[in-house]
Automatic annotation (TrEMBL):
<keyword id="KW-0326">Glycosidase</keyword>
<keyword id="KW-0378">Hydrolase</keyword>
<dbReference type="InterPro" id="IPR050226">
    <property type="entry name" value="NagZ_Beta-hexosaminidase"/>
</dbReference>
<dbReference type="InterPro" id="IPR036962">
    <property type="entry name" value="Glyco_hydro_3_N_sf"/>
</dbReference>
<comment type="similarity">
    <text>Belongs to the glycosyl hydrolase 3 family.</text>
</comment>
<dbReference type="InterPro" id="IPR001764">
    <property type="entry name" value="Glyco_hydro_3_N"/>
</dbReference>
<dbReference type="InterPro" id="IPR019800">
    <property type="entry name" value="Glyco_hydro_3_AS"/>
</dbReference>
<dbReference type="GO" id="GO:0005975">
    <property type="term" value="P:carbohydrate metabolic process"/>
</dbReference>
<dbReference type="Pfam" id="PF00933">
    <property type="entry name" value="Glyco_hydro_3"/>
</dbReference>
<protein>
    <recommendedName>
        <fullName>beta-N-acetylhexosaminidase</fullName>
        <ecNumber>3.2.1.52</ecNumber>
    </recommendedName>
</protein>
<dbReference type="GO" id="GO:0009254">
    <property type="term" value="P:peptidoglycan turnover"/>
</dbReference>
<dbReference type="GO" id="GO:0004563">
    <property type="term" value="F:beta-N-acetylhexosaminidase activity"/>
</dbReference>
<feature type="domain" description="Glycoside hydrolase family 3 N-terminal">
    <location>
        <begin position="13"/>
        <end position="343"/>
    </location>
</feature>
<dbReference type="InterPro" id="IPR017853">
    <property type="entry name" value="GH"/>
</dbReference>
């Protein structure tokens, strides 16, 4: 990567400096007309940064889930092409941002994917691995032309009903969240990429999705300091590039509006009390938690800036926002935020360490190491588990169109034919009646809890009946919160594998065969049987 040269900052007009504080969204699958429109916006308004998303039907914009997401096998090439075009359109070099919490694969097809944070939360003494992941993700981003990874999530996931954080959090223990987030950010910093801890002041303890509505965290400042704010404060003291503020209402701190537009929370708490001197960036301003409450274009952007925000992410009203800020704010306030983002640009553009290509081999190696160390046993009846492994068993799975290497491996090793629930419950139930022991591999349809993780309700009820009446050893290749909807009993036996990657399935098979011990620890509290 060639070193980028910024123009002398004192040559920028005040209007150009305000433009530097805006981060509109750009999309891999945009039409040529939409790309040209963005090029013009970047050029005319001296935009400071852009954030890449997959498409206008992706989760970040398709809140109701009604638009079909079209896959693009050449997303990575398209990403690099668009970065080049947008940089060419910019009179002042752009900071390129993306959400790559588990790698570019969070937004871009056919790129290396690393485990979700909840999987890393299951690691004991796994900070070296997490550091390697942060560094590898940073390298992949830099090789694509990205400077700023808006990660990691440092929310403490202390609400099982949380529809938007869950698997994106390292867990529900504040110390673990801090130490693992620190390892991740250090890895990114070692690669030369910028980081952003999110979602301040803590999005974990809510059952509301801020894409759709405004979550309420009704806790005192003291309660927040004891838990939610802890990892933020510790990481700020260690040094981070930016903090992302979430769309959260904290009535005991400020009952007039969300944190995103709260001077008390951004300027008083984060800046003054917690001592953060770096860049403060908003969560996406198109999210319904805030966007629906400001009818006049530009007012939301101006309100967030007045509260102390430096970067206005996913603003859909750039021109109006710039004009409103110029009318309402003093030049000194504008200069403060401009200097922070300029300093961040100088840091990002001084890095020339990027190479070519994606780290596929690195990802495979690290993922295998994580799999070896995260698998978690939750055995309510170890004796019945041992009895199952020494007796004939039904090799059953719910694969949901995932490549099921685990069940095929059981068939090859033990001669028990791999059966999938998708073939029909009537046929499967005939087999169930003839077996007392079942090895059940579940690949959940979705990673998020919405609509029962995507399970068919009839299938779910049938699985519950098997668990209640048979000796079932369950291998779960997905979000551990799925266990809360399976009707588990106190004597149920579960193995949490967390991911469905090839490396994780191979290790799960080795675990069943007694060749790999379970070294992981459940990083969250579950409602089911007191775990």
């Amino acid at each position: 990567m060639n070193k980028v040269h910024l123009p002398p900052k004192d040559q920028l007009t005040l209007s150009q400096k305000v433009g530097q504080l805006f981060m509109p969204a750009v999309f891999i699958n945009d039409t040529e007309e939409e790309v040209q429109k963005m090029e013009l916006l970047i050029s005319e308004h001296h935009i400071g940064s852009i954030c890449f998303f997959h498409s206008r039907a992706s989760a970040a914009t398709n809140f109701e889930g009604k638009k079909k997401v079209v896959h693009n096998e050449k997303s990575y090439d398209r990403l690099k092409q668009l970065i080049a075009r947008y940089q060419k359109a910019a009179k002042i070099p752009l900071l390129i941002a993306i959400d790559a919490e588990w790698g570019l694969a969070m937004r871009i097809e056919n790129t290396p994917q690393y485990p979700y944070a909840i999987t890393l939360g299951a690691l004991k003494n796994g900070n070296d691995l997490i550091h390697q992941i942060g560094k590898a993700i940073g390298s992949d981003c830099l090789n694509a032309g990205i400077h700023w990874n808006l990660a990691p999530v440092v929310d403490i996931n202390n609400n099982p009903e949380n529809p938007v954080i869950g698997y994106r959090s390292f867990g529900d223990d504040k110390e673990d969240v801090f130490t693992k987030a620190q390892a991740f950010t250090r890895g990114m910093s070692d690669s030369g990429i910028l980081n952003s801890i999110k979602h301040f002041p803590g999005h974990g303890d809510t059952a509301t999705d801020s894409h759709l509505g405004l979550p309420v965290i009704d806790k005192s400042l003291q309660e927040l300091k004891e838990n939610e704010l802890f990892p933020f404060q510790q990481l700020i003291q260690k040094g981070v590039d930016s903090v992302m503020v979430g769309h959260l209402l904290l009535p005991q701190l400020d009952n007039e509006g969300p944190a995103t537009t709260s001077h008390k929370i951004i300027s008083n708490l984060l800046r003054e009390q917690m001592g953060f001197e770096g860049v403060i960036i908003s969560d996406a301003l198109n999210m319904h938690a805030v966007s629906k409450t400001f009818s006049k274009k530009g007012d939301l952007e101006a309100k967030a800036f007045a509260a102390g925000m430096d970067v206005l992410c996913f603003s859909e009203n750039v021109n109006e926002g710039i004009q409103t800020i110029l009318k309402q704010e003093k030049s000194e306030r504008i200069e403060e935020s401009f200097h922070r983002i300029w300093k961040l640009k100088e840091k990002a553009f001084s890095n020339t360490t990027a190479t070519e290509g994606l780290g596929w081999e690195t990802a495979a190696s690290i993922n295998a190491d994580v799999a070896q160390n995260c698998i978690t046993e939750l055995y309510g009846s170890p004796s019945s588990c041992r009895a199952l492994k020494t007796s004939p068993f039904l090799n059953l799975s719910l694969s949901n169109d995932k490549k099921n290497l685990f069940s095929q491996g059981l068939q090859d090793a033990y001669g028990s034919m791999a059966l999938d629930i998708a073939w029909g419950l009537d046929q499967i139930n005939v087999q169930i009646a003839e077996h007392e022991n079942i090895v059940l591999a579940i690949f959940p349809p979705a990673v998020k809890p919405k609509n029962l993780f995507g399970f068919d309700e009839k299938v779910l009820e049938t699985i519950k009946s098997w668990i209640a009446n048979k000796n079932v050893l369950l291998y779960l290749f997905g979000n551990p919160y799925v266990l809360d909807i399976l009707g588990l009993r106190g004597n149920s036996n579960i193995v949490l594998v967390y991911q469905d990657f090839t490396e994780f399935q191979e290790v799960a098979l080795q675990h069943f065969m007694g060749k790999v011990p379970a070294k992981g620890s459940l990083p969250i509290q579950l409602k089911t049987f007191g775990l």
